[in-house]
Amino acid sequence: MSTHDDSTEALPGERGRHVRTVVLAAVADVACVVALTLGGYRAHDEGSAFSVTLRIAWPFLTGLVLGWLLVRAWRRPTAAWPTGVIVWGCTWAGGIGLRAATGQGIDPAFQLVSFGFLAFTVVGWRGVVSLIEVLSPRERRRRAAALRGTPRR
Residue 62 contacts by C-beta under 8 Å, 6 or more apart in sequence? Predict the structure, then answer.
């Protein structure tokens, strides 16, 4: 007699996909912050790339972590609303706040550039993912079946 339970077979696969999605979402968000900081490094070209990037990035990365915890981003990591918007807001506000608290520059131009760049990237990649999901043939079939009242298989 087998101890393997076929009724729970799909659950580990779904959990694995979700974990992979969470990890990829976190990596994408960190990449957005790193891209912002590399732009800052290129604009000012001061010191070693690693130390300048780290100095610019840590306040925003701290804000990013705060946003993930606040919205519990691991639950719906690819949702533009509310996940993306809250993560973006916390990343930007936390980054600017920590930069101000630690004596780093918070020039108004930098505030505007970082605000727009992080909005475009942190919320933007989630919007692209959502659009791809909505346009996928599988999702279109599911929505059509729901409109017809056909039970989901």
Answer: 94, 95, 98
Q: Which domain does 86 fall in, by range?
A: 8-148
Judge whether 28 lies within some domain.
yes
Question: Is residue 37 pLDDT above 70, yes or no?
Answer: yes
Number of H helices and E strands in the chain, helices first, is: 6, 0
Does residue 153 fall inside a structural domain? no
Task: Spell out a b/e string for 82-96, using b for 16 or more CB atoms within 10 Å of the CB, else e.
Answer: ebbbbbbbbbbebbb
Kindly state the tokens that stand for 92: 């930007």
Q: Give pLDDT tens digits for 39-60.
A: 877 766 667 778 888 888 999 9
Q: What is the pTM of this model?
A: 0.83
Q: How many domains does the chain have?
A: 1
Length of the chain: 153
How is residue 149 annotated by DSSP? T
